[in-house]
Amino acid sequence: MSSAATSSSVDPITLAVVRGALETTQREMTLTLEKTGRSSVFNLAHDYSNALFDHLPEMILQGQDIPIHLGSLIPAMKAIADYFGDDIHEGDVIYHNDPAYKGSHILDCCMYKPVFYRGELVFWTVCKGHLTDIGGPVPAGYNPEAKEIYAEGLRIPPVKLWEKGKRREDVINLLLTNMRARRDQEGDLNAQYGACRVGERNLLALLDKYGVKAVRDCIDELKHMADRHMRSLIGSIPDGVYSGEAQLEDAGHGFGTLTIQTRVEISGDEVHIAVQSPPQVPYFINSYEGNSMSGIYLGLMMFAEVPPPYNEGLYRCVTVDLGPKGTLCNAEEPAPHVNCTTTPMETLTDAVRKALEQAAPDRVAASWGHASGINIAGRDPRTGEEYVTMVLASIISGAGATKHMDGWHACGPLCCFGALSSGDVELLEYSYPIVIHRYGLVRDSGGAGFYRGGSGTVWEVEPLDHEMTVIGFGEGRQLPTLGAGGAVNGELDSKLGRLQIQRGDELEVHRENVMTTIQPGERAANINPGGGGFGNPMQRPQESVLNDVKNGLVSIEGAALDYGLVIDPNTLEINEAATTELGKRA
Amino acid sequence: MRTQYRLGIDAGGTFTDFVLADLDGGVRLYKSPSTPEDGTKAIRAGLEQISADLGKSIEDIIAQCDLCINGTTVALNALIEKKGVKMGLLCTEGHEDSIEIRLGHKEEGYRYDSAYPPAQMLVPRHLRRPIKGRILADGSEKETLDERAIVEAAKYFRDEGVESVAVSFLWSVRNPEHERRAKALLEQELPGVFICTGSEVYPQVREYTRTSTTIINAYLSPVMARYVSKIDDFFASLGARYPVRYFQSNGGLAVGSAMRGRAVNAINSGPASAPQAGLFCAKPFGVDNIITVDMGGTSFDITLTREGQTNLNKNIDFLRYRIGVPMIQVETLGAGGGSIASVDDYGMLQVGPESAGANPGPVCYGKGGTRPTVTDANLVLGYLNPDAVLGGQITLDRAAAEKAIREHIAEPLGISVEKAAYGISMIVNLNMVNGIRRVSIERGYDPRDFALVCAGGAAGMHIAALAEEMGIKEVLIPKVASGLCAFGQTISDVKYNYLATNPMRLDVEADLSGLNSSFHELEDKGRTHLLGDGFNDADIGIERSVEMRYVGQIHECTVPVATGVIDQAGLEQLLACFHQRHEQLYSYAEPHNPVELVNLESTLTARVTKPAQPKITQSDGNEERALVGPRDMLFDDSGGWMSAPVYQGGLLRAGDCIQGPALIEEPTTTIVVRPGWKVQLEASNCYRLLINA
Description:
Distance between the termini of chain A: 44 Å
Strand order of the largest sheet of chain A: 2-1-5-4-3-6-7
Oligomer: heterodimer
Number of helices of chain A: 11
Shape of chain B: globular
Number of domains of chain A: 3
Number of strands of chain B: 35
Distance between the termini of chain B: 53 Å
Strand content of chain B: 25-35%
Number of strands of chain A: 20
CATH architecture of the domain at 83-223 in chain B: 3-Layer(aba) Sandwich
Largest sheet of chain B: 9 strands, mixed
Structural class of chain B: alpha+beta
Radius of gyration of chain B: 27 Å
Structural class of chain A: alpha+beta
Helix content of chain B: 25-40%
Radius of gyration of chain A: 24 Å
CATH class of the domain at 83-223 in chain B: Alpha Beta
């Protein structure tokens, strides 16, 4: 246990109020982004994260937003503060997306607003969000042909958009000029500014009430509390060195299957995580430092199950070695990287999770479906304006089963861990010229296990009166989601994601990242994977399997292949004789 | 016969509260144990008490009531206990899982919790039947409705024995034709089955919210209808002059005919009148920042009102189910006088959420309860008078309470009975403090800026301890505290919300005549409704609002609109209001960008006259007149019993002031004045507790 004692100078009520005020501040920033954002990625899907930093700058609060952003914000904020050094002033607003300065991927644009109180820098309000476009040759930024980062879109190194309170129209114009669907991007940028301002407003009110010293004391105590919490968890794992590995799918670019390995060393209440990954590749699945930190932290948080609030104190007992520069998980210029927030981040998370499974087998849950989704773009015939968006609804996969229960349906992907929202079907159809024919659970997609993985989803779209571009990203179309506790799939194909294009009677099935166009009357259906199962599926109670069959989540064939149960299709009852004959169940 | 009274009946989980307000001033409060199996039994029992008290027959009293009002937890309890009816859903093909996908989101607070289960489905997947037929966002029909599939689904529902069906198709809010047709077919095929459609229940854009709201309504309405029929018949048989009014979650009243098919509007009916009643009590002290806490037998409800405004929620998750219709914001937890204390597997003392309810109730009630409750602890601590509680109707068995606490808590933990009783009280207080934190601190409000208003029979014994814990310096305990919600009902107006969707851009295509006629239509509907309820035009008030956003945004800001015809100038004003509101909420506005209007709402209120304020005798400075005698009580865990004076509340006068430690006994509530507090009875019939400076 940590020796850090509770600071006696902190009044417990004030501490609780400050904690509540920080959480409310963060929540109101999130609310501002959601309510004012222009693109569906912001206002429906919540692909953004807001955080507060202190003057150091250490993260003092991150909401329960997207885990992809969780890790990368910490080094990114420090890189920004370093870059400007003493050239940080009241009224400045800084913008940035570049992974070379610890950003995640260039679509995630981050705004940083220093908060000054009586001339002193006390806080930063920070808002990171996924813009729907960042220029470059492919709408929405996912260019599977990019061999270098320069071919992916606009890199924004730390730059001031407001300087001492003055909006720099020339700089903002430079950025927006490079993006498609300019009005959406401008609206989202304004929304980010609104979020940072709302955060600042709340924090200034807090400082007015309690003063800088009392607030800082509380924040120190909150960081200590998080540190103590994480240390007690790490301390409960037996000392030792544990290892795990996970595979990336063959993306069809001649690299074959790639493997990421982790080595987790527990000693006392500290943990060291070392990553070994292959050399970086000329394909968009390289991960720079900031993004890789997110993958590591997510693996750790899945295991630790830490309740909120989250601050940088959680990671004081964690050290990380991402391996040599120029490798897949510690990429450097000019590695292309846009897919990194899903692949390989989720693979890296799986590798950490597997090492921890070795350390504490009874405490680890199955993995969640990886993100495999689509972006869509075109010209809206209703207005003549260009539209482009990532369809977050298309990546909602199944959650992993745990030692307690079946996985949640439709709660993934792994990298977002339930924080995304797919957005209301009507609001999507209102915003874009599309018909969504199907958004439902996929039969037999949940990983087989004593506890079944949650079902993945299918999202099927048709363009209205125009030609639409469809761009795939992610993976989970060749390797099934990893189970835990001895889970095995009997039936594989339905556990995997794929992109299906229906043109008349012709059905194209894609298991790699492709870009294509479809016409009115044609449909694109993106199917993503279910979650992994937990425990031996042959011991899953019969009534649970029967119930899944009655509700169409498991087919008659799936019940036999995955669970060794033969079910009569007419009566929906178990054929005991045939089940015994099949001989799969103990 | 002249109308003399107004009757408010709040049926809670444990007790049913009755407030009989004399229209000339004076409020009487009665209680009877709730009878969840048949609500009329409790009501009859209460009326018998009133009848005996006034020396008039029940029929005479009812005939002298201008209004009988009922707040009920019927719908709420059915949702909590999953005791709605077996139901089916008809939905647009391809979207039958929308309700189970729940937008793909897991609630905040459980991000990394591997044991947090998904919400239970009210309609299992096999009873969600997909129907071909597609309306598009502009209201046009892309695919015709598959009527045969509806008939087939109806057959499946019949075979499965469903009692209600929700129909919710995509874009029915723009074109309800398919839903109307489906409803007609179902009514033919399934006589006696309750059918409701999304476009009727919640006519607003957002398929998930609308479908979920419609499902909850279908799940609960048959339960509600059975209840309402019974209550309506009961009062009609007693010769009531007007139909019974029911309290809705929006803070207003409705008639039974409006409630039968709209259970979703009454889901949080009970606690929704607390803010109104609380503000009424706080007004004489110039206080408009209040937190109301209502501690009854089973649950603890909290509301927060800031500067006189109580939050109204729309489109929220309630008990993990998405509900669109407007509701007063209430935080509820399982902590009440009946909450059961136990020692868990780890050897830790726990209190609630399990409750002994009305039956068997606390051990000391002697009705068969064996597990110790908060009330039993309060009795052992000396706060409750063993000889008289609830108007002397139940004699409390202190020995039985001690025995239960000894066996279940003190012995397993190896502590004394008093310490165990104190521990029970402390743990339940802690649970309640955490609940108050959630509505105040966690939303950025400092509880120290608020007064606590006490409601419910059990709260008076805990409220000063809660206030101390939160740093709150002022507590208000009206004499009607134990029936505050029932009292709130008697001072509430009839209120209906009417919603519509009519999206239009306000720059190029502002369709002012369309907008005006939409409002006109809503208000016509509301007016007809209210006139049918027996009101005159003079009673009716209208409040309008619209939801607006910048083109490209998805979420709206609510902007109030003046009534009357909206002309070009009115439109300009509306736009100015919107930009201002956006700036206020989100710190910036985009006045150069186009704005669109999406939803409209008209709230029609029929004013109900308020009963007059009661009159109360002025103090002569001699509180001794109310002194009953001293009793030993325990206020902290030092184990030191203190002898504290006990006063009879009925003999106190306006201006009387008492220093703690002391205890005041009212017929239906007991006020513990902890050491360090003083209490004054105010002319408005409200006790005001202030912490000693």
